[in-house]
Design a protein that fits this description.
three-stranded antiparallel beta sheet, Outer Surface Protein A, domain 3, Jelly Rolls, ten-stranded antiparallel beta sheet
Amino acid sequence: MTFTSPELDRLLSPMAGDEFFATHWERKHLLLGGRDASYYDALITVADLERIISNSDVRYPAIQLAKEGGYLPPSMFTQAVKPGGESLAGLPDARKVMDEYRQGASIALSAIQKTWPPLGAFCARLETLLDHAVHANAYITPGNADGFTAHYDVHEVFVLQIAGSKRWRLYPPAVQLPYRTQLCTPQTYSGQAPMTEIELQAGDLLYLPRGVGHSTTTSDSFSAHVTIGVTVHTWVDLIRECLQTTIDQVELRRALPPGFANRGEVTPLLRKTLGDALTKLGQEIDMDALLGSFASRVRASHPPMPEPFQADVATAIDWESVLTARPVGSYGFSETSEGVVLDFDGRRYQFPGMVASTMRAMIALQSFRTADLQAPLQHEVKLGLSRHLHEIGFLRCAIR
């Protein structure tokens, strides 16, 4: 089965998703160049970034300034205002921001997918496809300036060059595929020469596996880019999920022998008891239940798709309302001997088994009207089910 989506195709074109995951994902960097300078305009433009920075609604730490390898204290570029006597702190002072920018500071907009809808929808759909957490940061750097000193990230990075150009120096991994807690130190790449240098132009994409060191500089041109970060779930996380099940074993809840850290004669007992426990765990664990529980937690962590605000919430949906279910992969749907279970947005809902076929029909259709559902339920029961699923946010109604 081909692993693809519009979001993945946009990132990787002309490379296919299957080829990328077979040859580059967690293995080696990738440069995709030669695209039109306006390639990312549907996601965000430099004019959009300028408006965001100029808009005083963005606050620290959503906006930060960095220079000479570190972040500037917010007091150097933010202010507090008091509309109506209430103090609003962390608002950027446009003049101070511009002054620092002219002197070589980069502007960073963290988690911009939370406030810029096109990037929010893009990241949410990509996260639903990958089942790994996706976020976006934006950076604007003036010409003839250095970015951060050489470091590696503990997440996968896709660099989308929005405007201008930027030179990237790449260094061999100091830690192969570092875990989230294996952070880079300032001394990691001290005095080390880069293994390659890459000049990104508007429309280009650079993929960096976590652990690949990098530093950046600009030439005469300024640079604007967005990084799409993918924080992965690893086998370590799955094993930790497995170990959580050991709290049900009374033998493993007993205290370790007194003096276990200092008495060498206790070591054989520790080794045997731990080995026996791990063997027993491997024999008795319900793998399907473990994987199901882990998958449910991952699905629950997916960000909800942006939904338009509607002022008239008192008007209930009717037979003719056009409804859509949440996208496949953003929820869990299962049928048990006790009924139907629906998991999404970190919540679990249970329904009687008689609604199973109706819910399957809703999920299978791209969009539907309750009046058109072919299901054995009485009409009023179908409408009541649709209204309830709409109220909890699983169904969405097109604005008429």
